[in-house]
Amino acid sequence: MNLSDEQLAFRDAIRDFAWRECGSREQREAWLDPDEEEHSTPLYTKLAEFGWLASEDHVTHTVLFEEIHRGLVPVKAIGPTTTVKGCYERFASERQREQALAEIAKGKVMAISISEPGAGSDVSAISTTAKRGGDGWIINGQKTWCSFAHIADRTLLVARTSREEKPHQGLTIFEVPSGLDGVETRRISTMGGREVNDVFYTDALLEADAVVGEIGQGFRQIMSGLDGERLLAAAVGLGLAQRALDDTLSYVKQRKQFGKPIGSFQALRHRIADLATEVECARLITYEVAARMDAGEAGISALTSMAKVKASEVAKRATLEGMQMMGGYGYATEYDMESLVRFALVVPIYAGTNEIQRDIISRSFGLR
């Protein structure tokens, strides 16, 4: 893992920012709107003003995501926004790309809407339709699990424009501006908060030039961006795992039982050693993937899936073991560990479930 001097300085700047602005739960809550538990618009705007949202290489993005999640900076909408950014960079028209990237660099939130009640891992089952009508496209259908659609400036929607012989054909990506008539967003309450949404489209009319990329090529476009999305998910898991390890270490060094710090007990020392080893392994594979992507290496989908599986599973293990080692305090909302557990449990699910990732990995060995 060879970070440049510039990347090391970038990492240190984010780490310092996270500590100064979000070092305590009170500080983080002060940044948040009472109705928005996961994303602070003012804080996100600060990141934009620093130019941190405009980074382009994958290693720098990985540094950003790891440190933001390690520092518990409440700007979770950075995830879908970055995924959307990649789609605009690869497929949008010049007008769409310039406008969207300028807004993202200024701190605007973007969302991407793929999943439906009957279409999760199986993207080819998408049934939301986009039909030509009037001067544009008429959208009908329901999307679900759409992260931050309720605050997004625009959403990239994957809809079916035709029925072809193969079910994954005939999908198209559209950009949907916020406030469009015929679009209703309902927030979904989860154990981690209310960042995801159901989105209902009822005769919603889009402009004719709302298509992003090519008509009927949405599936190919989605697939081309999955390596980047898996890398970001790995970086999120890595940041959470490192934070869980940090907090556990701090606790076991201070907490005393039987006259000495509990971190001196062999049972806990060995668990800490194992977790530290796992976190470092996750870090190495995550940054290896990022470096290979920056080098333009092709055919690394199995490796990006490995990174996503490894880092997300380590995050889950580190948070659950951290809670166990902290005992009742790990379960109490007075400490951050319980919220880390809630967040870490979903990382193996989003950006493609780890079961799907293992299918991708196994197919790379000719196992079908």
Structure description:
The protein has 3 domains: 5-105; 110-215, Butyryl-CoA Dehydrogenase, subunit A, domain 2 (Beta Barrel), CATH 2.40.110.10; 225-363, Butyryl-CoA Dehydrogenase, subunit A, domain 3, CATH 1.20.140.10. It has 13 helices and 10 strands. Helix content is 51%, strand content 16%. The strands form 3 sheets. A 4-stranded mixed beta sheet has the order 1-4-5-8, with helices on one face. Helix 4 packs parallel to helix 8, helix 9 (266-294) runs antiparallel to helix 10 and helix 10 packs antiparallel against helix 12.
Can you give me a brief rundown of this structure?
The protein is an alpha+beta fold. The chain folds into 3 domains: 5-105; 110-215, Butyryl-CoA Dehydrogenase, subunit A, domain 2, CATH 2.40.110; 225-363, Butyryl-CoA Dehydrogenase, subunit A, domain 3 (Up-down Bundle), CATH 1.20.140. It has 13 helices and 10 strands.
What structural keywords apply?
single chain; 368 residues; alpha+beta; Butyryl-CoA Dehydrogenase, subunit A, domain 2; Butyryl-CoA Dehydrogenase, subunit A, domain 3; four-stranded antiparallel sheet; 13 helices
Order of helices and strands: HHHHHHEEEEEEEEHHEEHHHHH
- Please give the radius of gyration in angstroms: 21 Å
Going across the major beta sheet, what is the strand order? 1-4-5-8
Q: What is the first-to-last residue Cα distance?
A: 33 Å
Query: How many distinct beta strands?
Result: 10
Give the overall silhouette: globular
Question: Strand percentage, roughly?
Answer: 15-25%
CATH superfamily annotation of the largest domain: Butyryl-CoA Dehydrogenase, subunit A, domain 3
